[in-house]
Amino acid sequence: xxxxxxxxxxxxxxxxxxxxxxxxxxxxxxxxxxxxxxxxxxxxxxxxxxxxxxxxxxxxxxxxxxxxxxxxxxxxxxxxxxxxxxxxxxxxxxxxxxxxxxxxxxxxxxxxxxxxxxxxxxxxxxxxxxxx
Length: 132
Prior knowledge:
Elements: E1 2-4, H1 7-14, H2 18-26, E2 28-31, H3 33-48, H4 52-58, H5 67-73, E3 77-78, H6 84-94
Parallel strand pairs: 1-2, 2-3
């Protein structure tokens, strides 16, 4: 079956999750540039075990082999991201909220140190502001 693969499935696959492995290995499909970015960021965070702040400030000095990410993502067909007007039309028509996802944190067991879950998006009580 052909599927669109979201980054959470691919990050869980890389962390060794059996259900994610079955989904990835038994299907083919598509990713987009957002998925590429999120999977790469999640992988770098996992390998370096650095906080988002430290990673942002010290990334130029970090040496990470991205070959495992490249090997995984090459299995999929990358589809282009539609223009903003198309995205806004879909959000309006289907009443979908846009997803802000820039704070992945996975570890070898696929769990976040604090919550026990892979986290993505705003933390409880955090407000999203334009430009943040």
